[in-house]
Design goal:
The structure holds two protein chains of two kinds. By secondary structure, chain A is an alpha/beta fold. Helices cover 45% and strands 19% of the residues of chain A. In chain A, the strands form three sheets. In chain A, strands 11-10-9-12-13-14 form a six-stranded parallel beta sheet, with helices on both faces. In chain A, strands 3, 4, 6, 7 and 8 form a five-stranded antiparallel beta sheet that branches. Chain B has nine helices and no strands. The chains are: A alpha/beta, B mainly alpha.
């Protein structure tokens, strides 16, 4: 009896479950049918124009989002941008973006061989498709066109740079002319540079060479260019005192310029015969292989003085520590902010950042260098003045002054 | 002298013996993991060689020695040759040939991009640089150097002026009193939170004083005496504190490089750590 009751109850439960499941499926189907996605309303005011201040191949588009994007039917999940060469032509997809997006910059490639190539001076037609969760349900906007892209010769977003370049160059030219005219342009004493003469004298007394390291910069780096002037000065003194000079180079072009610099310095000192191309030699363009070689030179040649002037990276501390270990006097200078601390702790004298540039003018005393150094000082004075004005205007909520310095790409 | 040579020979023999033992043991360990004989011999050789070269370079910490010299010369020679090959294949084959010659592009199996006469400018400048090798035509290299230095200096002037000058100047325009509502609210709402009024005001003052005194330190047209001297001393303090922070940060990076090499020695070579 109990068994029969159990069987009946089980059948009832099973039947109930099946019925319930069937009911859920039916409900879900009904829900899907009733929740079929409706077509959204299209975006409006589609507008396209050439992107400003660029080299061309780019168009900027904007539109008003669909009324069903974040409101209304709330069924817009994103947009797709299409482009064609004629209103009736084949539209190709140019970009996809999420709901809420109301602008897009359609940047094409300028290389003809690129698949993304977008020619300038060609008519294009655009439309924007409002998408829903159902891939089959969407709404296209009206077609906008024709519109063409083209490059601009003048980037108006960089006018502040132009103003500063003209101002700086004008000041430089005026000061160079003044220096050439015999005006006494004062440059304060730089202890690090005054130590160079002392160090060359020490090397001469000890009968040991001077090691000059130009760093890892290329011949066109400003720090390397400044270093050439100092190298020229050191080489001239070395030639006068008949001391040895070793200049291991990281970059072949840097080596070529350094060879010219040293050769000229020896000629200026009246000892062109004492110059040897072996003084300035190429090592390798691998950073740490170069360091290994220079370190070996330091310990084998035991130079009395090591001078590091130029662009340095992770090798700065390794070089300076080895030089200190070898007992050499060390003078360094770099504009690489991250490396200055290592030179400060391991060298006897360090030229910090712009002191390196000033050193070349201080040593050379050439009107060209003095004039540009003075122009830099004037620029710094202008920065101080601008900073004070900037602080004051920001304090009074006048942010317009800061806007004057805004530079677009 | 004779004793020194004998000691050197003994050390060399020990090093060679250790190298061979390491090679064999490492090879056996690799072959145990199922690798083919040739691969285990080759891999064991290179792992042992890398460990030997690491130790040879580290031996410089003791003093200059023949093992360091060997590693140094190998490193310099291999890297110089490597970079020469990279220069040839990336610059001449990868960049020049595809823009000037279809047949040369085909020969080196690189896609031809079409004839572009502008690529002859760097080609000619490169040849002019090589003229240094000639005693009579050496002067031509100076023209190429002048071109390189002049054009890149001009380009750098604009770049530096834009990023290091104008942008930095405008970024230092900060209010010295952030959200100022008077002395009373300032003290009553005093908080040390990073986004709080006190911290933001202090940060802006540090920027103002740091920029102002730092620029005075780098002003070369006036002796550092009187007000200028005091301000430049503050400037150098600001710089040194910055350098100290930078020093600590970079040292941590260097320690991680050392850890990388030690991990190689103890894991890849000796297998002492997993």
């Amino acid at each position: 009896m109990k068994l029969k009751t159990l069987i009946v109850l089980s059948c009832m439960l099973l039947g109930g479950s099946v019925f319930s499941a069937a009911q859920e499926v039916t409900d879900a189907t009904a829900l899907t049918d009733t929740a079929a996605v409706a077509a959204p309303r299209p975006i409006a005011d589609l507008f396209a124009r050439d992107s400003e201040n660029d080299h061309g191949h780019s168009l900027t588009l904007s539109w008003t989002i669909s009324p069903d994007d974040g409101a209304g039917q709330m069924n817009v999940i994103g947009y797709e941008l299409y482009r064609a060469l004629s209103p009736d032509g084949e539209f190709e997809l140019r970009g996809k973006f999420p709901f809420g997006a109301a602008s897009y910059i359609d940047v094409g490639a300028k290389e003809k061989e690129s698949s993304q190539y977008s020619p300038d001076h060609t008519d294009f037609y655009y439309k924007v498709r409002a998408l829903t969760s159902d891939p089959e349900v969407f709404t296209d906007s009206e077609i906008f066109g024709p519109v063409q892209s083209y490059g601009q010769w003048f980037n108006t977003g960089r006018i502040p740079v132009l103003v500063f370049v003209i101002g700086f160059l004008t000041t430089t030219v005026i000061l160079i002319r003044r220096a050439r005219g015999g005006a006494d342009l004062f440059v304060r004493r730089l202890p690090g540079i005054e130590a160079v003469d002392e160090a060359i004298g020490r090397a001469t007394e000890m009968g040991k060479p001077i090691l000059y390291v130009l760093g890892l910069g290329t011949a066109a780096d400003i720090a390397t260019i400044a270093s050439y002037t100092i190298l020229g000065r050191v080489a001239k003194k070395v030639a006068e005192y008949q001391t040895g000079l070793i200049v291991p180079c990281y970059d072949p072009v840097t080596m070529t310029v350094a060879q010219e610099t040293v050769k000229t310095a020896y000629a200026d000192a009246g000892r062109p015969d004492a110059y040897s191309e072996d003084m300035v030699y190429f090592v390798t363009q691998s950073q740490f292989a170069y360091v290994a070689a220079v370190n070996g030179t330091m310990l084998r040649e035991r130079p009395a003085t090591n001078i590091y002037m130029g662009k340095f990276f992770a090798e700065s501390l390794i070089l300076a520590e080895t030089g200190a270990f070898a007992g050499s006097i060390q003078i360094s200078g770099t504009d690489e902010i991250a490396q200055i601390p290592f030179f400060v702790v391991a060298c006897d004298y360090t030229l910090i950042g712009e002191e390196l540039y000033a050193a070349s003018a201080y040593l050379g005393r050439e009107p060209l260098l003095l004039g540009s150094l003075k122009a830099q000082d004037y620029a710094k004075a202008a920065v101080i003045l601008l900073a004070i004005i900037g602080f004051l205007t920001m304090n009074f909520g006048l942010e317009g002054f800061k806007e004057l310095f805004y530079i677009s790409n | 002298m004779e004793g020194s040579k004998r000691l050197s020979a003994i050390i060399l023999a020990v090093v060679i013996a250790l190298f061979l033992v390491s090679w064999i043991v490492k090879g056996l360990a690799i072959s145990d993991s199922g690798a083919a004989l040739w691969f285990s011999v080759r891999d064991a050789f290179f792992i042992t060689l890398a460990a030997f070269l690491t130790l040879a370079i580290l031996s410089f910490l003791y003093k200059d020695n023949p093992y360091y010299k060997f590693a140094e010369h190998l490193f310099v020679g291999v890297s110089a040759a490597y970079w020469m090959c990279v220069g040839f294949w990336s610059t001449i084959v990868g960049n020049l040939f595809p823009n000037i010659s279809e047949s040369l592009s085909g020969y080196f199996d690189v896609p031809y991009k079409g004839f572009n006469p502008f690529y002859f400018i760097p080609l000619i400048l490169g040849i002019m640089l090589l003229m240094r090798l000639s005693a009579r035509a050496g002067w031509m290299s100076r023209w190429a150097l002048a071109w390189i230095v002049g054009t890149t200096s001009g380009l750098n002037l604009i770049r530096y002026l834009r990023t290091d000058f104008i942008s930095q100047v405008s970024n230092t325009f900060v209010p010295l009193l952030v959200d100022w509502k008077g002395v009373g609210p300032f003290f009553s709402d005093l908080s040390l939170s990073a986004s709080g009024q006190f911290t933001m005001t202090l940060a802006n003052w540090v920027i103002f004083v740091g920029v102002f005194t730092g620029l005075i330190y780098f002003f070369f047209s006036k002796e550092h005496k009187g007000f200028f001297g005091a301000a430049s001393r503050v400037g150098i303090w600001v710089l040194m504190i910055t350098f100290g922070a930078s020093f600590g940060y970079t040292v941590m990076g260097r320690v991680s490089l050392l850890v990388g090499r030690l991990t190689y020695l103890f894991r890849d070579w000796l297998g002492l750590i997993s």
